[in-house]
Amino acid sequence: MASTRVFQLATKLGLRSEALIAALEQMGVTGANPATTLDETTTTAVVQLLAEQATRAREEAEARAAAEPPAEEPAEVALAGEAVEAEEEIRSVPGARRGLEPVVGLNELERHIHELEQTEEAERHKAPVAETLREEARRRRGPRPATAVDGAPIVTILGHVDHGKTTLLDTLRNTAVAAGEHGGITQHIGASELERAGKRIVFIDTPGHKAFTAMRARGAEVTDIAVLIVAANDGVMPQTVEAIQHARAAHVPLIVAINKVDLPNANVERVKQQLLEHEVVPEEWGGQEIFVEISALTGQGLDQLLDTILLVAELEELWVDPEAEFTGVVIESSLDPTQGALASILVRSGSIKVGDVVVAGGAYGRVRRLRDWRGKSVKEMGPGRPVAVIGLSDVPRAGEIVRTAKDPKAARQMAEEFQEAERLGELRGVAEVQLQELYRGLHRGEVKPLNLVIKGDVSGTIQALETSLMQLSEELEEVEINLVSTGVGDVTESDIMLASASQAIVIGYNVEADEQVMRAAADEHIEVRLYSVIYEILEDIQKAALGMLEPIYEEQFIGRAQVLQLFKISRWGVVAGCRITDGRLQRGARIEVKRDGEIVFDGQLTSLRRLKDEVSTAEAPNECGVYAANFRGWAEGDVIEAYAQVEIERKRPTTDWRVSTPEESRT
Ligand code: GDP
Predict the structure, then answer these.
(1) Class of domain 327-423
(2) Which of 257, 354, 578, 623 is the most buried (most CB within 10 A)?
(3) Domain 435-548 - what CATH class?
């Protein structure tokens, strides 16, 4: 389930964690600290509560501003001269009048929520083009039209590196892709088709959840079924877990293929047990997922895998409509030296024909040629099938929607509209996007990825760098360094596109990036960093990674005070006049009030006052006034112990990166 931590949510709302915790307590959620994980329901509820409070606070402030300043109400019982001051102090706390604990930063929160509402409003009124595009990119889920026919399932293979994704695709296709995988551009069009028992299955050629998710990030939900491949000799690995999460996030049904069962050290039962921990439970154990044992290498079990895919597809009731207007989704694109922009698309509905004028995101053009997945020229391609389109003005990005236009002029206008919509989208900025995500109940995972595209002059250096990076990744528990790709040679535009799709930084070691590449990087908002000393790369990444880390909080004792005198204030209760004997007191801190060694109150310090001022902290040996909204039973002589969430400084990784690589020691 999507969840968020208190401090993450507070940051998003522009609040302090204590304020959020106070709001949670008002809802009856007690004992939360900044590191507490909140489920989706609680998150929604607390955001709603804060929004209501913010609105009320604003209305009250407006009402107050409109009215004459109210006359001072005399205190009913005043035990000391300071009583009136104390009362003022308490009334200055928003929320105190309603008997609620105050929530600081309401103005701030309200501003955020207001902005959020504006953004949502703007979204609704934005050029309809982007909205329609997103709609069309989704698989049709509405009622099946009379003209619809059964659709072939679109399958993506997910799993940990080396567990056999490429081999499985290879064997299924029975072609030699393996060489192509390393040799740059292949002749593939991004997907392949397979027939079994008269039914078609489409496999997306780029396996792995990164490509799968990059596509989804653009709003295109192409995959109908995910095959999770787990090597029986290796078991569940980190990317296996990620793949499960990504498939779950996409609400895509999962078929588990336990691979390499031909190996003597294959242990199928162990894989099943390990997957249990991630709530992937075989059907025979009462779960949802179908498990198939295969060997991608020998072909064992592959028929069963295909049958399972068809079975799941049948349950999903997939359909396509050949009679509908044409729409497609770009699944892969490249710039071919002889043919120009090449876009592999998946036809979603209707069909595409040679001579059609099409728009794909910001690219457009007349279809000069169509090629099927085998590379054969075709005149037309129907729904649910992949096809390569030649004739576009530009290289569209994976995940973009393809539509027809009535003529080139209209196409150009649509492409420009799209670019404009995109530009507006970019101007909205990261913070607002995050808030929107929050609003929709989407939350980031707990482990932050730092995605890197690495280019180097020789493979030896790249390997050395890879090893060091993986070591660094292990030391930084909450940051996962993902090498999106590594390769020899100068940084190219395709590296930039890759980085853009995977939200990565491009690192170059002893290589260059020409002007055109740097322009592409600027367009895509991709950072390209070039180095000639390897340890500088590691140092910089370490710094970047540390900067990305969420703070760790720990509750710590912060101070002690003794109650000297009580001030009873009409309606509000009691303020304890104290002397701080140790450390400090802090507004919002958790306090334990002790009398004869026994705790008589454990709760929040609502308000703190020094002389005439409301303060956030007060230190020993000063005197101060303490008010706790939930406690009135103070007695002189009580001891207050205060505890607060203190940010713990992170240990820097201990590795000394200044170990030169063979490359460097040569120079
Ligand atoms: P990917 O990284 O998931 O795409 O994994 P690959 O398909 O590149 O496979 C990694 C290695 O595992 C290659 O050396 C394959 O030959 C090997 N491999 C893949 N499937 C099998 C299998 O079923 N049995 C055995 N013995 N080896 C396999």
Answers:
(1) mainly beta
(2) 257
(3) alpha beta
